[in-house]
Amino acid sequence: MARSAPFGRIAGFLIALAASGGCDGKTIHLGDGRDGAPCAPAQVNANELLWIGDSWVLVTGTQHTRVRDLARASGAIGPNDDYVIGAMPAATMAAIADQYGAQEAGPIKVKVVIMDGGTWDTLVGGGSAASVNSAASSFAQFLAQVARDGTVAHIVYFLTPELPGIPGVAALRPLVKQSCSQSTVPCHFIDLQTFWAGHPEYTTGDLVPIPTEAGASAIADAIWAEMQARCVAQ
Questions:
Q1: Strand order in the sheet with 49-52
Q2: CA-to-CA distance for 31 and 67, rounded, in angstroms?
Q3: How far is 215 from 199, CA to CA, in rounded Å?
Q4: Which are the contacts of 148, defined by CB distance < 8 A and separation ≥ 6?
Q5: Exposure b/e, 208-217, CB count within 10 A at least 16 = b
Q6: How far apart are CA 85 and CA 103, in angstroms?
Q7: Triad 188, 194, 199: Cα angle to 5°
Q8: For burial by CB atoms within 10 Å, which of 50, 58, 117, 229 has the most?
């Protein structure tokens, strides 16, 4: 069930309050690791976390600004720090891989990737098997490239829910989920289908659905919860 925006704000406040209790002025980074233990400080600078993808990263923008604000509140990043946004509208999975490549080619290497992708491929292809397989193959190739580069410690990937106007999601889901689970670099899969259930207010758009402000906040809360649960950039 998706977290509401008020719940996320309360959670962020509690995290910030707990983080302020460090000894000798040092910040304690908290989180729930897989064994329930607090996360060790990840030592990931804000400019080493890269958002890539398509319009579902960019519209309305709360997807990344809310995660940033929760990270600031928790002490995971500094109060004036911000993440790097490489996403572009209407981007295919191959183009999304290029977004990562452009950042990785610079002096500051990527340590964490947060992304969506693949559904523009299926949309353009009308949800055909060829378009689904092409998107899935491009995603698997991207994961392999990230592993070869050797700087990324975590990938958080979220998949658009099944909606009229975005064909092929149901067929794409098991393929990208499997690639994510088999990735050499830990890849954490978030299926927005679960969070969108019973929430028509999360989406707008007559032809191609995009998130509303409520939907963007739901994406952010799902990502932040996964980041905490998996000790990603905490």
A1: 84-85, 49-52, 112-115, 154-159, 187-191
A2: 14
A3: 9
A4: none
A5: ebbbbebbbb
A6: 10
A7: 135
A8: 117
First to last CA, the chain: 23
Q: What is the pLDDT of residues 95-125, one digit of tens each?
A: 999 999 999 999 999 999 999 999 999 999 9
Q: pLDDT at residue 177 above 90?
A: yes
CA separation, residue 211 to residues 72, 85, 107 (Å): 24, 17, 33
Tell me the sheet residues that pair with 52.
115
pTM of the model: 0.85
SS (H, E, C) the chain: CCCCHHHHHHHHHHHHHHHCCCHHHCCCCCCCCCCCCCCCCCCCCHHHEEEECCHHHHCCCHHHHHHHHHHHHHCCCCCCCCCEECCCCCCCHHHHHHHHHHHHCCCCCCCEEEECCCHHHHHHCCCCHHHHHHHHHHHHHHHHHHHHHCCCCEEEEEECCCECCECCHHHHHHHHHHHHHHCCCCEEEEEHHHHHCCCHHHEECCCCCEECHHHHHHHHHHHHHHHHHCCCCC
Mean pLDDT, the chain, integer = 88
All domains of the chain in start order, with CATH: 46-229 (3.40.50.1110)
Lookup: tokens for 36 = 């329930």
Q: Which two tokens stand for residue 128?
A: 């055909």
